[in-house]
Amino acid sequence: MLAKDIIKLINNIAPSKLIDKKWDNSGLQIGSLEKKVKKILLALDISPITVKYALDNQIDMILSHHPFFFTPIKSISSDEIKGKMIVDLVNNDIVVYSAHTNLDSAENGVSEILAKKLKLRDISVLSNSFTEKLYKVVVYVPISHKDSVRDAMTNQGAGFIGNYSHCTFNITGTGTFMPREGTNPYIGEANRLEFVQEERIEAIVSDEGLTKVLDSMLKAHPYEEVAYDIYELYNKGKDYGYGRVGVLEKESTLLDFAKQVKETLNCDSIKVYGDTSRITKRIAICGGSGIDFLNDVHFSGADTYVTGDIKYHDAQIALEKNIALIDAGHFYTENLAMSYIKNYLDEMTKGKVSTISFEEKSIPFITV
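Above: the chain sequence. Below: its structure as tokens.
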């Protein structure tokens, strides 16, 4: 497979439209989209150890969560650590691609994976960053082709309402048209008014899927000139964003829940802020550094917040808001996503490429 084929698969689960372009630098970091890929290394971070592993194991492509380049670089010197990594990656034709804030905000992204791993129910977005725009597509089809055109639309994603798919509304009526000179009508003759029994098919389509639905619809439609309408809707589409909120299957003390988090994420250690005997039920979580969303946690009604990289004064503010905190670490709250991506790529590539998880922890400190 080519690098661009792998990237297309990643974009299916972490769309590039979700990248927070104000500060993030997700996407292709190094290499060519046309690179032939047989072996992929999945890693949370790209470090000298990651690059050495890639070189030693003939890796063609590295997929990371954290971007290799967060900010612009002014020089590349092989005498410096970052420069040497760049030189080694380029010289060995290794493609580097990162999915960061788009994977954070995705429907089944970092925080969603974390929420499910902690067995939360009734999961919703903590801090909304993007709302899907919706359209209604209406098309008029001769009765003979109503099923094939409807299937062509819904098979490309038209008609999703919540967890229901293939939702359409259909009305039978009479269409009129007069073919003019030079036309090649499917029904009728030139310069004669035709009356045809037609089906009006309506379906909701997302902004992202609109082009595919229209292309499929037009290919399946028998008419030379297809009559269809597109309406922009005020209906709210899917919400995407940072973090998740949910409820525990069974309420627990803060201490017992903290122990569950530590065991589930296989953390070396965690920090707990708050009365460990208090009862916790509604949980907010955010993989990585999520303290910026503390106000969202407060307004969500969550009593406990699980994230990483919590600072001293931020913890004091949380306690003032009566929110208990569990700092499970940046690495542990995000690394689960890399296993999810590996399983997804294994399934989608069907053995065409080999995927390898970088097992070494990229935590830049130890607890003693």
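The CA atoms of residues 250 and 281 lie 7 Å apart.
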